[in-house]
């Protein structure tokens, strides 16, 4: 071997050891830091819930639901004008009623159905086809139902089906 070949081998040897040493230090540090961050999160030190809060001793009490009653509305099928793509609107809803007033509201269901039928026929078809308009339609229908049934009886109108076909 010549002197230049020996010099090249000697020069290459330390760089390989340094690169391996740096690689091993990087692997060890990543494992240690990953394990430490897992422990910190699992124990609850970093925004985790930890295992102590999962025990029944620390559970928050369950709040009772408010008492409600529902009066189911008969399904409505409303024919739309010939200018629209859709020919019919299928509507099905339910009224959330203050408990104790179910029979009062039940006796007024024919008026409520008539009111909803007349209102939905009067609404422009472009409004019915707009998905964002459903919130406004619901609010308008609820206000009208509350006027027919009397204040304090109907809390909410739940729309169970609103299909244009």
What can you see in these coordinates?
The chain is α+β, with helices and mostly antiparallel strands. The chain has two domains: 3-58; 69-164, Tetrahydropterin Synthase, Chain A, CATH 3.30.479. The chain contains five helices and four strands, in the order αβββααααβ. It has helices at 3-43, 102-107, 109-122, 125-129, 134-149, and strands at residues 69-72, 76-79, 88-97, 154-164. Strands 1, 2, 3 and 4 form a four-stranded antiparallel β-sheet that branches. Helix 3 packs antiparallel against helix 5 (134-149).
Keywords:
165 residues; alpha+beta; Tetrahydropterin Synthase, Chain A; four-stranded antiparallel β-sheet; 50% helix
Low-confidence stretches: none
User: How many structurally independent domains?
Assistant: 2
**Rg, please?**
35 Å
Reported CATH architecture of the largest domain: 2-Layer Sandwich
Broad shape: elongated
Along the chain, the helix and strand elements come as HEEEHHHHE
**β-strand number:** 4
Fraction of residues in H or I helices: 40-55%
- CATH fold assignment of the largest domain: Tetrahydropterin Synthase, Chain A
Report the biggest beta sheet as strand number plus sense, adding barrel if it closes: 4 strands, antiparallel
Find the structural class using helix and strand composition: alpha+beta
Query: Class of the largest domain in CATH?
Result: Alpha Beta
Distance between the termini: 90 Å
**With helices defined by DSSP (H or I, 4 residues minimum), what is the helix count?**
5
Q: Would you tell me the overall average pLDDT?
A: 84
Strand content: 15-25%
């Amino acid at each position: 071997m010549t002197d230049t070949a020996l010099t090249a081998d000697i020069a290459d040897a330390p760089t390989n050891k340094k690169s391996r040493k740096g690689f091993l230090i990087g692997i060890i540090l990543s494992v240690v830091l990953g394990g430490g961050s897992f422990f910190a999160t699992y124990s609850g030190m970093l925004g985790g819930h930890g295992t102590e809060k999962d025990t029944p001793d620390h559970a928050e009490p369950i709040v009772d639901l408010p008492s409600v009653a529902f009066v189911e509305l008969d399904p409505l099928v409303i024919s739309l004008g010939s200018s629209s793509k859709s020919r019919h609107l299928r509507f099905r809803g339910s009224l959330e009623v203050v408990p104790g007033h179910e029979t009062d509201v039940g006796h007024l269901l024919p008026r409520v159905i008539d009111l909803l039928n007349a209102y939905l026929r009067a609404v422009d078809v472009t409004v019915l086809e707009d998905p964002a308009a459903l919130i406004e339609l619901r609010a308008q229908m609820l206000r009208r139902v509350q006027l027919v049934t009397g204040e304090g009886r109907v809390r909410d109108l739940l729309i169970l089906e609103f299909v244009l076909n």
